């Protein structure tokens, strides 16, 4: 049994039992998940140091929903210098939809290694144990943890256990003695990443051997069998693991006064329960003008109320001047025609609050894991339209394993324009069919189970308690 560390003294100075250093990857879904985890860790009265560039720390704080990082006194943000990087606009016509325009920001983040190492050296004498929790994509930058006698590293995976498992399974030349049936139509990795990003991924491998264990933003109620598979020695090298998700808040506080509330939430207030579709493709996807027109027409033809977040992918610095930001032209008179039925949002939208709203009944999504977890934890089924990265495999998990979603566009057809008729049919299937109602029921049940998992006595809460006991052990 793990015993918690008492406060100790070194050279007459009070020494904290344990401190945590969070090292996120500088993309929105990754920044967000590690910041949410910081909130959970800080609730155990453990100081958390969240590190990154000034731009990306500001982004994480500016966009987080469901709580305010500035109200928690033991989360400390460290703005580290990194080389200036280019912030080009996204290319909606790129053959591979992965956000190659963010690569300069990703590459610059490797330069966090030196200031991170300096911080660890400064913190080391002040705590009995230093715990570094890093995104797997920041393993290189976090490698100096091994130079400290009282430091340990853990990887927090910000993608599904399903996607991680099959990625490892393929890298081990497809071991066939599995307890599960491998789907014949498992989407290939072709088209998921650029060559440059694949190099960045490969660079992390040698440094992942330094981790003492792994954390997953998922819960056993959703991905139990894949968590168990990842726990086998041939896949994780006999290292400890904990499934501690969903990391996002699962109870959204009472609405603030109307001055601080986003206009789309007030629009949703006027809609019938579970009647509205939320449409958003995340922060790393830019659709072509032609595809936006087809989507607009498809939504209009569906006659389903919708909130559509229509914005370009993030640039590397989201606070850079907006003079080059593309403003997509919709069909003539479109916004007037759909005014009563739909709302178009061109700024940052409070996704967690939208998904938690009782009028939201479906989510047309790219299936990034952050969005999947937020949607499922709020009991909202998904219209899956994957664009890149782990999204095609998350789509398979959502639609075929969990059965809480429909596929809008198959990954094999990723280079084809998705017609307005296809979009209309998928939306009606999700929102206006018996099949869709069944998915909504399953999503609500799974959402309830996910929320219960993080409450007192739930599986994820017990795993988080176990992790805290482990890092606080004597």
TrEMBL record:
Its EC number is 2.4.1.-. Keywords: Glycosyltransferase, Transferase. It comes from the Eukaryota. PROSITE patterns: UDPGT. Gene3D superfamilies: Glycogen Phosphorylase B (3.40.50.2000). GO terms for molecular function: zeatin O-beta-D-xylosyltransferase activity. GO terms for biological process: cytokinin metabolic process. Pfam families: Glyco_transf_N, UDPGT. Residues 433-457 are annotated as: Disordered. Belongs to the UDP-glycosyltransferase family. This is Glycosyltransferase. It comes from Tetracentron sinense. The lineage of its organism: Eukaryota, Viridiplantae, Streptophyta, Embryophyta, Tracheophyta.
């Amino acid at each position: 049994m793990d015993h918690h560390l008492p406060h100790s003294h070194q050279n007459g100075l009070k020494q904290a039992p344990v401190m945590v250093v969070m090292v996120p990857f500088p993309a929105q879904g990754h920044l967000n998940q590690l910041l949410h985890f910081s909130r959970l860790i800080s609730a155990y009265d453990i100081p958390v140091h969240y590190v990154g560039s000034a731009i990306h720390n500001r982004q994480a704080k500016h966009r987080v929903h469901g709580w305010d990082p500035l109200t928690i006194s033991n989360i400390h943000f460290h703005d580290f210098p990194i080389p200036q990087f280019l912030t080009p606009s996204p290319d909606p016509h790129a053959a591979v939809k992965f956000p190659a325009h963010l690569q300069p920001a990703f590459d610059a983040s490797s330069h966090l290694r030196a200031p991170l190492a300096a911080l660890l050296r400064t913190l080391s004498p002040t705590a009995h144990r230093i715990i570094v929790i890093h995104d797997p994509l920041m393993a290189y930058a976090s490698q100096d943890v091994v130079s400290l006698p009282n430091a340990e590293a853990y990887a927090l995976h910000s993608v599904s256990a399903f996607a991680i498992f099959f990625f490892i399974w393929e890298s081990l030349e497809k071991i066939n003695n599995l307890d599960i049936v491998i789907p014949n139509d498992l989407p290939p990795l072709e088209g998921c990443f650029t060559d440059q990003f694949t190099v960045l991924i490969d660079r992390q491998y040698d440094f992942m051997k330094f981790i003492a264990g792994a954390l997953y933003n998922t819960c056993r109620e959703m991905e139990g069998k894949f968590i168990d598979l990842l726990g086998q020695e041939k896949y994780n090298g006999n290292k400890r693991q904990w499934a501690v998700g969903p990391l996002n808040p699962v109870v959204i506080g009472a609405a603030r006064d109307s001055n601080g509330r986003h206009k789309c939430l007030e629009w949703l207030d006027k809609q019938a329960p579970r009647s509205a579709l939320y449409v958003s493709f995340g922060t790393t996807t830019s659709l072509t003008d032609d595809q936006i027109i087809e989507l607009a027409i498809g939504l209009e033809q569906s006659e389903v109320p919708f909130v559509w977040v229509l914005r370009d992918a993030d640039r590397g610095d989201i606070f850079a001047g907006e003079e080059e930001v593309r403003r997509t032209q919709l069909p003539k008179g479109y916004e007037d025609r759909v005014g009563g039925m739909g709302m178009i949002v061109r700024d940052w939208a409070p996704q967690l609050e939208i998904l938690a709203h009782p009028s939201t009944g479906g989510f047309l999504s790219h299936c990034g894991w952050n969005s999947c977890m937020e949607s499922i934890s709020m009991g909202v089924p998904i219209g899956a339209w994957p664009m890149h990265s782990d999204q095609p495999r998350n789509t398979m998990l959502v639609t075929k394993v969990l059965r809480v979603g429909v596929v809008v566009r198959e990954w094999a057809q990723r280079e084809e324009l998705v017609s307005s008729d296809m979009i209309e049919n998928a939306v009606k299937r999700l929102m206006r069919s018996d099949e869709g109602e069944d998915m909504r029921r399953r999503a609500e049940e799974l959402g309830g189970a996910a929320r219960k998992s993080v409450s007192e006595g739930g599986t994820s809460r017990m795993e988080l308690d176990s992790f805290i006991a482990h890092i606080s052990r004597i």
